[in-house]
Amino acid sequence: MGSEGGDGPAGATARATARPTRPEMQARLDSLLREHRVTVAVVFPTVGAILLVASAEGHLPPPLAFEPFLLLLGTLVMRSPLLIGMAPLIDRRAAVGVTVLAGYAYAIEFAGLRTGWPYGEFHYAIDLGPTVAGVPIGLPVFFLPLVGNAYLLCSLLLGRRARAARIRLPAVIGTVIAMDLVLDPGAVALGFWTYPGGGAVYGVPLSNFAGWVLSATVTVLVLDVVLDRAALLERLDTCEFALDDLVSFVLLWGAVNVYFGNWGAAAVAGLFALGLVRADRFDVPVGR
């Protein structure tokens, strides 16, 4: 009788082997990330910066220098706080929106590589892994979190003012441009990609930032449509690690820019660090 009612050994075994529900899986992932926040948000970007600089300076042998699998794996690990933090908000509508944005990322990159529009003429200078029509398949992992982090940071810093699209949209776009002022000079210095015509900002042309105005606008408009803002703000209140990917961004790209003497870009990275402190998010527990 006990086993039929689910209270005996058979019932206990069934419960133990049952597929976890989505809330249970989310709770496990949240707990795992909280336990390893320092590793993800501090150790990985620190080691990553050292390996990237060593690769650029020729201190690593070719099999390891800019190894594409390690680049993608390290990026995914550093992106994990954002991915796990946003996971509860991804319903069917949001999943469709993210898929549309991934498609947009591929399309705009394809156009940029072949026409120079909208970012300016550029080409990849190292292997970033498997490609489709010359575009790295990992592109959404690099592209979407840039805007996602800006979106979350502005939501926190603006508070109630973020409810107004006329304030939220330009604030997020400006934040994305500021992030690219950190990312692109560092990437060019490392040799990730190059602009043959050079540029006014550490070798990056102004057209690149104009292109990001377009891409950031498209991405923010889609996120506004597909995300539940009330649920987003509630998740941010309870998920202290949601912006740890931005912590990694500051540490990795700030360090790279300092090494190559891109002091303006490094200073912008410092401003992001201050923004994270103000948002009470630069709080990775040292004891963990």
Automatic annotation (TrEMBL):
UniProt biased composition (Low complexity): 10-20
Name of protein: Bisanhydrobacterioruberin hydratase
Transmembrane segments: 38-56, 68-87, 94-117, 137-159, 171-193, 209-227
Residue span of region Disordered: 1-22
Keywords: Lyase, Membrane, Transmembrane, Transmembrane helix
Native species: Haloplanus ruber
KW Membrane (keyword) present: yes
EC numbers for this chain: 4.2.1.161
GO molecular function: lyase activity
Organism domain of life: Archaea
Name of the gene this protein is made from: cruF
